[in-house]
Amino acid sequence: MGQTLRVTVNGEGRSDEVEPRLLLVHYLRETCGLTGTHVGCDTSQCGACTVLLDGAAVKSCNMLALQADGAEITTIEGLAPEGGLHPLQTAFWENHGLQCGYCTPGFIMAAAALLAENHDPSDEEIGRGLEGNLCRCTGYVNIRKAVKAAAQAMREGAAAPIGG
Amino acid sequence: MAVTQLIGARVQRREDPRLITGHGQFIEDHTLPGLTHLAVVRSPHPHARILGIDGAAARALPGVLAVLTAADFHKVLSGSMPVTPAFAPEKKYVPERFPIADHEVCFQGEPVAVVVATDRYLAADAADLVQVTYETLPAVVDPERAMSAGSALVHSDGPDNIGWDMTYAGGDIEAAFSRAEVVVKERILQQRLAPTAMETRGVMASYSPYGEQLSLWLSSQNPHFIRLFVSGAMGIPESRVRVVSPDVGGGFGSKISPYPEDYLVPAASKILGRPVRWIETRTESVMTTIHGRGQVFTAEAAALRDGTLLGLRLTQVLDLGAYHGTFGAFQACACLMSGGVYRWEAISARTVGVLTNKVPTDPYRGAGRPEGTHLCERMVDRMADELGMDPADLRRKNFAREFPFVNNFGLTYDSGNYDGTLDRALELSDYQGWRQRQAGAREAGRLVGIGLSTWVEICGFGPSAATAGATGGIALVESAQIRFLPSGSVAAYVGTHAHGQGHDTTFSQLVAETLGVPLEAVDLRHGDTAEGPAFGYGTYGSRSLSVGGMALYTASQEILAKARRLAAHLLEASPEDLEFTAGAFTVRGNPQARKTIQEVALASYGGGLPEGMEQGLEAVSHFDPPNFVWPFGAHVCVVEVDSETGAVEILSYTGVDDCGNVINPMIVEGQVQGGIAQSIAQALFEEVVYDEESGQLLTGTMLDYLVPTMNELPTPKLDRTVTPSPTNALGVKGIGEAGTIAASAAVINAVCDALRPLGIHHVDMPASPDRLWRLMQEAGR
C-alpha cells in the first residue's frame, strides 16, 4: 500500500508512491536512479549512505523515505551543477582522497555539511565532523588533507568578488 | 628506468571523476530488465544436521518466485568448490564443499536455501519464513582443542579435524639450538580478522538457454578464475560465460576466491529463466565472507650472547574454518617468511591447518607475510630484551646484506638495502630523541614505548615454475593486449583487476610513456572477460605492476618492434637506423625523415606493407616473472599506554619503504598509508569473536567489529628509498600490502616496550584497553 512522498531531490520536485517501509537510500537509488549513494553497513556506522536533508548530513540507510516528506535532499550527484565539481570533489581528486571510491560520496556529503557550518575546521573538528564515516582504503590521511584544501578553496572563493 | 615526463609523476587519477561525482558503477548499480532478487537462508548454528526444510509459507507470499534447496541446485551444479593444492603437505584432508548444504551445516551462515522474489524486501521477508529443522551438533571452535584426539568433529563424516600438516626445514635446527647461549620463547596469537571491504560482495547473473550464454557480474578481484570455476560447475563452455567485475569497492583479498553465491545466483538464473541479483548485507559479510589471519604461533629463537641469531623454531596452528579456503594454503607464506630480513643458521617451521566450525580463512591483505613479519619481529625484540641490546643494533647485526640473498628455504631475495631503510627511518622518526624522551617519561611514571619493524615481503606472484603447482595447473603469469586503432588511439587490456589501486592511471602512464603517445590516447581496460586476452590472473599478492605492468610493457615492446619495421619501410631506411623518441621514428642524422607512431599505426591498416607483414598494430603478451619481487622497509612506532585505562595512543609513526622504481608516487604513498591503517587496526582494534562454547559469532556488525575511524589513526611520516628489482625491465616491486605487513609489529613492539618496566614482555592483538588493563593488573599483583 503506497503512500505519497513529496520531496525535492537535487533541486527537482518529485512525487512518488512509496511503501511505508522503503528506506530513503533505496528510494534514492532505485526510485530516483541516483546510485551514487551507497550502502556499506546497514547499521549506521559507515556513513557511505550520507546525504544532505535540508542541509544536514543524514544516513539515508537509517531513515524511511516517508520521514523525508517535504524535505530538500541533496545527493552526491547534485552537489555541483551538471558537469562541474564542488570544491570538495576537486580537493578529493587533487589530494588522492579516495582509492576504491565506495565510501567517497558519503565522506564528501558529510564534509559538505561540516564546511557549511565551519569554514576553517581544525584537524580535530574534521575528525569530529567525519567520525560517522568509515574508509577502508586510505587511512584517512588524504581525506583530512582534502577537506582542509576544500575549506581553503571555499574561503578563497567566497572572498573573491562575484563575477570576478 | 629513468624518471620521465610520465614515469615517476604524480598524475591525478583517471578513475576519480566518476567516483567523486557518484557515477561509479559498483555491483549494486547494475540492473537488468526483469531483474529478480535472491536472499539466502543461512544456518543459525555453527554445526547441525538438517532434518527438513519447509518453504511452503515463503512460496505462498505473492511475488516469491522460488524457494530452492540443495536438491534443486544439484541438478544444475556439480563438483566441489575448488581448493588449490599449494605446496606439498605431509597430510591433507579436504572436506567436500557444495555451494549449499544438503544434510549438514558446518559454520554459522552456511547457505541452506535461497529465495528468489520480484523485490528485495520481499525476498528478505520470504527468507525469514523458510522453516528449517535442525539437530544441533557439537561446535568445534578452538583450533588447538580441535587437534586433540578426543575432539568433536567439524564434519561428522571426517577422519579428524586436521586439514593439512606441513613442515619447512631449512638448515640444521638442532645444531643451531645446541650452540645457543640465549633462547627466548613466545606464544603469539593472530586473531581472526574480517577484511571489511566497504562494498560488500554481490552477484548478478543472466542465463540464456539460446546458445547457452551466461553473463555474470560480480564484485571480484579475480574475474577470469571465477569464469573458469563457474563454467566448470555449471557445465557451460568457458567461452560462453562472460564475467564482468566492474568498479569494486575494496577487496583486500576477500574477493579472490569463489563463494557459494557465485554459483548459486547463476544457477538460480538458469533454473528460473530470469536475471537474478544478490547483494550481501554487512552482517552476512562478517559472517560468511572469508576471514584473514587466525593463527596461534609457538616459537623459540636461539642466539649467541653477542646477538648473532642462530635458529628459529615455530609451529603455526592455522584455524582453517569449516572448509579449506580456495587459496588458504598460501598462509604457509607465514612460515616461508618467518626469518624476515635476517641471516639465520636454521629455521624449522611447521603449519598445522585445523578445521573448525567457523567461516573459512583465506588470504587477507598480506596473507601470511604480516603474520611471518609479526612473529619474526616480535621474536627479535624479545631477544634484544633478553640480551639487553638496543633492538636497532640487534637488527643491524643480523641483516642480510649480500644480494641476491638466498633464505633458509631456498627463496632468493632479489635486491635490498635494509640498513638504508632502517637508517632513514631512525633519522626521520628521531629515534634517539625518542629514546631520551622515553627515559624522562619513565622517570615520571609514564608508559612510553618505541617499536621497530624491519620487514621484507615476497610478492609479485609469481613465477610459473613456483605457482602452477600451487594453483593446480594455472601458472600465475599475467597477460596484456595492446592495440593501436587506425586513428591512433590505444586500447590496452590487462588481466589484473583494480579495486582502488589506481591501475587505470598507473598502467596508462606506463603505456603512454613506452609508446610515446599522450596519456589521453590510452584507454586502459580490465575486469571483463569478454575483452582482452584469453585469461587474466587477477589482482592480489602485490602482483599487478611487477607482473601485469610487465605484460603491458612487453606488449608495448612488441608493438614498437613491428612499428619500427613498418616505419623503416615507409621512410625507406633500415630499422636499425631509426631512433624512437617522443613518439616518433626518425632516421638517425636526418630528423626530417620522421613518422609518428600514430602515422605508422594508420599505415599498418593500409596496403603496401613490407613483405610478410600482416595488417594491424597490436600485440598480446604474457609475462612470466623469473622470480618473485621483494619489497622491504623499516617502520618506527612510538606509543604511550595510559596506566589507568590501558588505552594506547600513537605518538608518532614513521615508515620508510622500498618498492623499487615507482610509476606514480602519489598512489604509492596512498597504498602505504592505507596499509599501515589496516595493520594498526589489527594491532589495536579489530577481532572477529566467536563464543567459545556455542560458536556463535559475537561481532556481526560494525557496532562490534571495530573498523577505526579517522580519529583512531595517526598521520604517518613516510619516505622511500629506491632499490630497483633486477628481475624485471621496469625495476619495480609491489606496494599494495607493504604497510599491512610492516605496521602491526612496530605497534606491538612499541606497546611491549612501553610495558616493559611492569615486567610485561608480550602482548597479543588487539592490544585493546581491556586486554592491557588486565595485563597491568596482573603484573601489579
Summarize the structure.
The complex is a heterodimer of chains A (164) and B (781). Chain A has five helices and five strands, in the order E-E-H-E-E-E-H-H-H-H. With 164 residues, chain A is an alpha+beta fold.
Would you kindly provide a written description of the structure presented here, covering whatever features stand out?
The complex is a heterodimer of chains A (164) and B (781). By secondary structure, chain A is α+β, with helices and mostly antiparallel strands. Chain A has 2 domains: 3-78, Ubiquitin-like (UB roll), CATH 3.10.20; 87-159, [2Fe-2S]-binding domain (DNA polymerase, domain 1, Orthogonal Bundle), CATH 1.10.150. Chain A has helices at 24-31, 87-94, 104-117, 123-129, 141-159, and strands at residues 3-9, 12-18, 50-53, 56-59, 72-74. Chain A has a 5-stranded mixed β-sheet, with helices on both faces. In chain A, strand 3 and strand 4 (56-59) form a beta hairpin. Chain A is globular, with a radius of gyration of 16 Å. With 781 residues, chain B is of the alpha+beta class. In chain B, strands 3-6-1-13-10-11-12 form a 7-stranded mixed β-sheet, sandwiched between helices. In chain B, a hairpin with a 4-residue loop joins strand 10 and strand 11 (213-218). Chain B is globular, with a radius of gyration of 27 Å. The interface between A and B is large, with 55 and 55 residues.
Ordered list of secondary-structure elements with their pairings:
The complex is a heterodimer of chains A (164) and B (781).
Chain A: E1 3-9, E2 12-18, H1 24-31, E3 50-53, E4 56-59, E5 72-74, H2 87-94, H3 104-117, H4 123-129, H5 141-159
Chain B: H1 16-20, E1 36-42, E2 48-54, H2 56-59, E3 64-69, H3 70-73, E4 91-92, E5 104-105, E6 111-117, H4 120-129, E7 131-136, H5 143-146, E8 162-170, H6 173-178, E9 182-193, E10 202-208, E11 213-218, H7 223-234, E12 241-244, H8 260-272, E13 276-279, H9 282-288, E14 292-303, E15 309-321, H10 333-336, E16 346-355, H11 369-387, H12 391-398, E17 405-406, E18 412-413, H13 418-429, H14 431-443, E19 447-456, H15 464-471, E20 478-484, E21 490-494, H16 503-515, E22 522-525, H17 544-571, E23 578-581, E24 584-587, E25 590-596, H18 597-604, E26 617-623, E27 632-641, E28 648-658, H19 665-684, E29 717-720, H20 738-755, H21 769-780
Parallel strand pairs in B: 1-13, 11-12, 15-16, 21-22, 28-29
Antiparallel strand pairs in B: 1-6, 2-5, 2-7, 3-6, 4-8, 8-16, 9-14, 10-11, 10-13, 14-15, 17-18, 19-27, 20-21, 20-26, 23-24, 24-25, 27-28
Helix pairs in contact in B: 11-20, 16-17, 17-18, 19-20
